[in-house]
Amino acid sequence: MSTSYSIRHAIHPNDSKTYDTAKLREAFLIEDLFQKDAVQGVYTMYDRLIVGGAQPANKPLPLESFPTLRSENFLDRRELGIINIGAESTVTVDGEVITLANKEALYVGMGTKEVIFHPAANGADTFFYFNSAPAHRNYPTKKVALDQAETVEMGSLENSNHRIIRKLLINSVVETCQLQMGLTELQQGSVWNTMPAHTHDRRMEAYLYFNLPEDQVVSHFMGEPQETRHLFVKNRQAVISPPWSIHSGAGTYNYAFIWGMAGENLDYNDMDKVQPTDLK
């Protein structure tokens, strides 16, 4: 079996205030999401979102169920979002072969029996990032190319936050039960993401940082707005963001990140913004 999962429990904000660096990283940072010829995942107790990565190099990798799910198939009671952050490759969904270029997304509905991640045909590095959330009904499998995304340009070079936001798997583009995913790219010379920062009590979020040189880092800011903390994050590492936490970052180099959300509200703009001067 090439699939491995761990569990992260929900943390009360009052408890997180007492954490040292090691404990903060243990609770919220996912450092080893991609392992060659393996599927790695973290089952979080925040809206029961699963954060996962598949790195097929020498063989196809099936998305397998695991004991915590208590289901024969991974998607018996779940929906799935996949974004390709590596070379162009394919995903097989119940026998249908779907090609995903770099940064393209795929939604897979509840009830799907088989999902298989394939290595790139030319042997190039292949990385599939995925999020999965509980679902209440089946929606059709749908591929979303970059030109099909709802795209927004925000920020400015003067404020070091010029960025392109591509809303790939959200309810204005593809029908989902609760899962939403998208991709934000910082433009050259810009390093700040998600500023002004915000929280959203009705859903949690996960960030995957990528396209970051191996010798560079992003400082991810988290915590309650009046009690912030930071995590230094490397390329292809992910952060679990509770509903009570801000989720913002600044890098030593421009980068991209994938945001994924689950919860009771599909309204992308449902958030409580916090001005930079009000953060502590």
TrEMBL record:
Keyword terms: Isomerase, Metal-binding, Zinc
SUPFAM superfamilies per the UniProt record, alphabetical: RmlC-like cupins
Any Pfam family hit: KduI
Cofactor(s) the protein needs: Zn(2+)
Bound cofactor: record note: Binds 1 zinc ion per subunit.
Superkingdom of source: Bacteria
EC annotation from Swiss-Prot or TrEMBL: 5.3.1.17
Catalysed transformations (reactions): 5-dehydro-4-deoxy-D-glucuronate = 3-deoxy-D-glycero-2,5-hexodiulosonate
Sections of the chain in a coiled coil: none
Binding annotation for Zn(2+): H198, H200, E205, H247
Biological-process GO terms, alphabetical: D-galacturonate catabolic process; D-glucuronate catabolic process; pectin catabolic process
CDD domains in alphabetical order: cupin_KduI_C, cupin_KduI_N
Protein's pathway: Glycan metabolism; pectin degradation; 2-dehydro-3-deoxy-D-gluconate from pectin: step 4/5
GO function terms (MF aspect): 4-deoxy-L-threo-5-hexosulose-uronate ketol-isomerase activity; zinc ion binding
Known function: Catalyzes the isomerization of 5-dehydro-4-deoxy-D-glucuronate to 3-deoxy-D-glycero-2,5-hexodiulosonate.
PANTHER family: 4-DEOXY-L-THREO-5-HEXOSULOSE-URONATE KETOL-ISOMERASE
Family to which this protein belongs: Belongs to the KduI family.
Name the record gives this protein: 4-deoxy-L-threo-5-hexosulose-uronate ketol-isomerase
Organism listed in the record: Pontibacter akesuensis
